[in-house]
Every structure is written in structure tokens, then in C-alpha cells.
């Protein structure tokens, strides 16, 4: 489990980064450039490349690794676990996050995914058919409980530092918003129980649209409601305080809705996801920080914005835009090659924009 002492020691071993590169997560610190493991085919060759890049990231100053049970058919989790076991970096210095919600096939996608779901989850009694949306997404407590246990096994860990309920808005295509909130509260209660048992340190939601769309959008979920449901879950589980700590959402120069759209109610009026999270003490981890490589291309960032960003390459400037946003703890960037990994992490040797300069890019 990631600890205060190990992460501060890790920070001190990497003085090459700019002043604000390491940021608070709980009592410890984590790098503001993290490694994502979503992209790539489910093959042995890609496994080998990820193993190399995870080890290199840890050794060169990036101590945030993000994965999910469905990424590359559970292969990403397994390769992260192998890399952690073989790295000389202290496990307690690394913040490991994973997710559950989408079915993770076992190493390869089966010829009949429906039969796999039926045999693995329905016939076994882990979940009911009506709890699945689109045939492959479930956030019911028993399912998430099972997925967390599988993830811990894949990762070879006793404790995961942050466990996300993955894209809960997927359920809105099947059930009402209130029903989704009710299901999340029940699942949060189970995660609070798993936190009390030491299986996870914190939990949250990883989303694509839910937190950055307008309040009247069909896929909107309210952060204030999620926080309230997490508090109720903590009360139900008998934990001293909620372990709901983090949100993950896409944020980059072309997808800035988490800063510009204000759909979340607060005592101060409607707020953006980033502002609400910051004022509520939630950590924010950004996905799609370089838009799956699109922002690594020359000319992809508007000149008026690029001129305000420090970095030697378009990818570095894009990363520095994402981690300049107020309230962002770490910007995740996928990389399965050492060259891209080195370029991405080196973005942290430059200072991000200050708050005033960031605000001015939207004027």
C-alpha cells in the first residue's frame, strides 16, 4: 500500500523535476504525470513492452500506474503486477489504481462473449442478467466485489491504492438516474467494507462523460450526490470516514468540459467538476491527456495556447496543459514504448501554467 514515508522518500530521490511535479495524495505525494495501460493489442509482444515501460516509469520519477480489469483482457493488470514485483522501487512508493465495471475477458476475447458472461457470472450467481448494461457492464455490489478480488490477484497485491467504479454512466442507458445512485450507494458500501478489511485504500469513480456534461444531459451524474451517497455508505459500513477519494475524467486542450461546464450543485452555486472536486477534497486524475496521441502531433494545440505552455514537444505541452488545470493531481498518459514514456515523464521537468495563465486561455 502506498505510504507517506515511501512516497516522500521517492520524491526526494528525483530532484530533477519542477517544483510542483509531485502533488499530495492523502498524506503522501504522487507524480503529476502517470502511466496509463489502456491501449495496445492483447498480445505477448505488447505485454513485454508494457512491462519495460512500467519499470522504467517507476525508476525515472513517475509513481502513478493506472489500469483496469478489462484493459487488454486482464493482461494490463497482470503485466503491471509483474513489473511491480520485479522493480527495485519500493511498492509502498507507488500509487496503483484499477477499475471494475466492464467485463474483463481472460487474456483473449472469446468467440462468444455472451456465453462467457453467462458461464462466468450468471450461472455462478455472481450477478443477475438484469444487472448488466450492454451485456458487458455491471456495477452491482456482488459483481464489483468479485472484480476487486480478481484485480488483486492479477496485480499480486494485498491492497490496491485506489479502486474506481468504471464508467457508471453506462448504466443510465438501462435504468433511471436515481436507480443508478442507489446501486452506487450499495456498491460504495461494499467498497467501504473492503477498505476496512485492508483490500483497498481509497475508491472513486472513473468516468468518460458523466461528470463533464450539462446537468440536463442523459449521461450526467452529480458529484454532490456521489459524495452524499459515499457518506451514507460509510455510515452503513461503520467506517470512521468515507474512503471515497478520487475521480477520473478526460481532460485536455480539446476536451476541457471538466473546467468550462458547471453542472454540479454546491453551496456556492453550480460548479465545474474540477472546482467541485478540489473544494471537496477529491483527487482528480485526468485521462486522455494527449487524446490518445492526437495532441502529440505538430499544430494540434492552438497557437494561442501552445505559446503559453512549456515543453520541448507537442506531447509535453499537451501534458502540461492537463496538469495545469486547478485541482488536478496527476495526468495519465498511455505509453508502451520507452521513447514515448521518457518524453511524457520529461514534461514534468517544466513548470505547468500558473492559475492566472490557465484561466486566460479560456478568455
UniProtKB/TrEMBL annotation:
This is Aldo/keto reductase. Residues 33-212 form the NADP-dependent oxidoreductase domain. InterPro entries: AKR2_Oxidoreductase (IPR053135), NAD(P)_OxRdtase_dom_sf (IPR036812), NADP_OxRdtase_dom (IPR023210). It comes from Halomarina oriensis. Pfam families: Aldo_ket_red (PF00248). It comes from the Archaea. The lineage of its organism: Archaea, Methanobacteriati, Methanobacteriota, Stenosarchaea group, Halobacteria.
Amino acid at each position: 500500500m502506498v505510504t507517506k514515508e515511501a512516497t516522500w522518500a521517492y520524491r526526494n530521490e528525483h530532484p530533477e523535476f519542477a517544483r510542483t511535479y509531485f502533488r499530495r495524495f492523502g498524506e503522501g505525494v504522487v507524480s503529476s504525470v502517470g502511466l496509463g495501460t489502456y491501449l495496445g493489442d492483447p498480445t505477448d509482444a505488447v505485454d513485454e513492452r508494457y512491462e519495460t515501460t512500467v519499470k522504467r516509469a517507476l525508476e525515472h520519477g513517475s509513481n502513478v500506474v493506472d489500469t483496469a480489469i478489462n484493459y487488454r483482457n486482464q493482461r494490463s493488470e497482470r503485466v503491471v503486477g509483474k513489473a511491480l514485483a520485479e522493480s527495485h522501487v519500493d511498492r509502498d512508493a507507488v500509487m496503483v489504481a484499477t477499475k471494475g465495471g466492464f467485463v474483463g475477458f481472460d487474456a483473449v476475447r472469446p468467440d462468444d462473449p455472451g456465453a462467457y458472461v453467462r458461464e462466468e457470472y450468471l450461472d455462478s450467481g455472481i450477478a443477475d442478467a438484469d444487472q448488466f448494461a450492454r451485456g458487458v457492464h455491471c456495477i452491482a455490489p456482488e459483481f464489483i466485489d468479485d472484480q476487486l478480488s480478481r484485480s488483486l490477484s492479477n496485480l499480486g497485491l494485498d491492497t490496491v491504492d485506489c479502486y474506481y467504479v468504471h464508467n457508471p454512466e453506462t448504466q443510465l442507458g438501462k435504468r433511471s438516474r436515481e436507480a443508478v445512485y442507489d446501486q452506487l450507494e450499495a456498491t460504495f458500501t461494499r467498497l467501504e467494507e473492503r477498505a476496512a478489511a485492508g483490500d483497498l485504500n481509497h475508491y472513486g469513480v472513473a468516468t468518460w462523460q458523466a461528470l463533464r456534461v450539462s446537468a440536463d444531459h442523459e449521461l450526467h451524474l452529480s458529484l454532490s450526490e456521489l459524495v452524499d451517497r459515499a457518506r451514507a455508505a460509510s455510515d452503513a459500513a461503520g467506517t470512521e470516514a468515507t474512503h471515497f477519494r478520487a475521480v477520473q475524467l478526460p481532460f485536455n486542450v480539446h476536451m476541457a468540459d471538466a473546467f468550462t461546464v458547471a453542472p454540479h450543485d454546491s453551496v456556492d452555486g453550480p460548479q465545474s467538476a474540477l472546482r467541485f472536486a478540489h473544494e471537496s477534497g477529491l483527487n482528480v486524475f485526468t485521462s486522455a491527456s494527449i487524446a490518445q496521441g492526437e495532441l502529440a502531433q505538430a499544430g494540434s494545440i492552438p497557437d494561442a495556447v501552445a505559446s503559453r505552455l512549456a515543453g520541448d514537444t507537442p506531447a509535453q505541452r499537451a501534458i502540461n496543459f492537463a496538469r495545469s488545470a486547478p485541482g488536478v493531481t496527476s495526468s495519465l498518459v498511455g505509453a508502451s514504448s520507452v521513447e514515448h514514456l521518457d518524453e511524457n515523464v520529461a514534461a514534468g521537468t517544466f513548470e505547468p501554467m500558473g492559475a492566472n495563465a490557465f484561466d486566460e486561455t479560456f478568455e
